[in-house]
């Protein structure tokens, strides 16, 4: 009886060993074939890339088949609007606000040197009329002391060397002084106007009053 148990245990160990070796062998075979397939695909991909690059070098792209991306088209259109980019401190035009009967000079830059003279154009934003977010700022106690009277539906007109651009206020916001969302890129031509808030606050104001306006016409 004891011998039969030992014989049975030995048989089970043998079967388990065979199964284990079979699974290991299958795993090695499967991995090898996958690796081979991957390497084959990779080599075909690289070969195709090299062939396309060689054809591209020999054959210039046809003007009939080349399509510009939106970014490229916008950039080229913008270059037509302003073939020469302004220098810091340069007067780039005027901001007209019919609601408060104001015509204000715009200077490129938002340092105190520009803001003391008029409205400052945030230099890292696009110029008025261009696609994206053009940002203007001004002091609440000088050029923008009546800006709080301007609201949704009112017009903001920017006159520059590139033309006259009319924007319509879509909404107003009051944000913290360090809120950077007002300068984020936009998918279309937008004018963002910012000043300190509250208007009657004494000292450094903790918030900003924001006008967000969409371009509705250009001449």
List the defining traits of the structure above.
alpha+beta, 3 helices, 2 domains, 219 residues, eight-stranded mixed beta barrel, elongated, Sortase, Chain: A, 33% helix, single chain, 8 strands
Topology:
Layout: H1 2-58, H2 70-81, E1 91-97, E2 102-108, H3 112-115, E3 119-121, E4 132-138, E5 155-160, E6 163-176, E7 189-197, E8 207-218
Parallel strand pairs: 2-3, 4-7
Antiparallel strand pairs: 1-2, 1-5, 3-4, 5-6, 6-8, 7-8
Task: Tell me what you see in this structure.
The protein has 219 residues and is an alpha+beta fold. The protein folds into two domains: 1-66; 84-218, Sortase, Chain: A, CATH 2.40.260. The protein contains three helices and eight strands, in the order ααββαββββββ. The protein has an eight-stranded mixed β-barrel. A hairpin with a 4-residue loop joins β1 and β2. The chain is elongated and about 100 Å long. The N and C termini lie far apart (106 Å).
